[in-house]
Amino acid sequence: MANANLDEAALKAAIAKAREAAAIANAIEPRAESAYYDSSSDRIVINLKSGATFSFPTEIAPGLAGASSEDLADVEITPSGDGLHWEKLDADFSVPALLAGAFGTQAWMEQIKLKQAS
91 pairs with which residues across the strands? Predict the structure, then answer.
């Protein structure tokens, strides 16, 4: 019985620590408030909780390039606001990574650079 109490105390401490880390991340990391596909520009637009807006062309994101307008419009924001998800396209992106210019793997980014150079 003593071990069960110790385990419960450790679990409660871990939960409290995780909640504190989440609160700090919510305060300092970029979080999406909304996201949508703009068909007129073929871009994904992300409105951040900070009030800033970020967009990127779908052609530079693996899994989104060449997708139908209908599938691109079906974007979901993760509950924490730090990710975007397209169920039908099986595509997921980190909002902080997108803002840092990381749209895919290193190999994907190299392909993008080569396309832009030609």
Answer: 86
Sheet (strand 53-57) strand order: 32-38, 43-48, 53-57
Q: Could you give the 3-state DSSP secondary structure of residue 8? A: helix
Residue 18 host element (H or E): helix 2-28
72 touches 84 (CB < 8 A): no
Question: Would you mind telling me the total number of residues written for the chain in this entry?
Answer: 118
> Terminal CA-to-CA distance of the chain, rounded, Å?
69
Residues 6+ away with beta carbon under 8 Å from 77: 32, 33, 34, 35, 83, 84, 85
12-23 b/e (C-beta count within 10 Å ≥ 16 → b): eeeeeeeeeeee
- Tell me, what's the pLDDT at 4? 57
The 10s digit of each residue's pLDDT in 87-111 is 999 999 999 999 999 988 888 888 8
The Cα 10–Cα 57 span in angstroms is: 46
- CB contact set of 74 (below 8 Å; sequence gap of 6+): 86, 87, 88
Q: Please tell me what DSSP assigns to residue 103.
A: -
Tokens 């595509």 belong to residue: 91
